[in-house]
Design a protein that fits this description.
Order of helices and strands: HHHHH
Oligomer: single chain
Number of domains: 2
Radius of gyration: 26 Å
Distance between the termini: 103 Å
Largest sheet: none
Number of strands: 0
Helix content: 40-55%
Length: 120
């Protein structure tokens, strides 16, 4: 292999690695290339913002929403409205809200229906 071919190959390899670095998401707005900011990742102080995020979060999981559901606050109502609405079915963080709601429904006492049978 000639020296010219080695230099050409090295130059192409260097150019390719530079392009791949740019494509990997290195930008000035994000201090760590390839990593999302904490708010974009759903790690925010507002649980409704976290629900609307398309990035899964661990901060507002099933344990958090179970506590909110026990107190039956307006936040729980807004969370259910969003998660069962048109946009919520796509939101990955709504899975915790739907799971808590399903668990609450299964754990609720069964109401007796009035006796409607005709007895002879």
């Amino acid at each position: 292999m000639s020296l010219h071919k080695v230099n050409t190959f090295a130059a192409r390899l260097l150019a390719l690695s530079a392009l791949l670095s740019l494509a990997a998401g290195c930008d000035r707005q994000n201090p760590e290339p390839g990593r999302a900011t904490s708010e974009a990742a759903g790690e925010t102080d507002d649980p409704m913002t976290a629900l609307r995020s398309q990035t899964p979060t661990t901060r507002y999981g099933a344990v958090y929403w179970a506590d909110v559901a026990k107190s039956d606050t307006a936040l729980w109502g807004r969370a259910k409205t969003f998660c069962y609405g048109d946009e919520g079915w796509r939101a990955p963080n709504c899975g915790a809200v739907r799971n808590v709601e399903a668990t609450n429904k299964m754990a609720a006492p069964v109401q007796k229906r009035p006796d409607t049978h005709v007895r002879f």
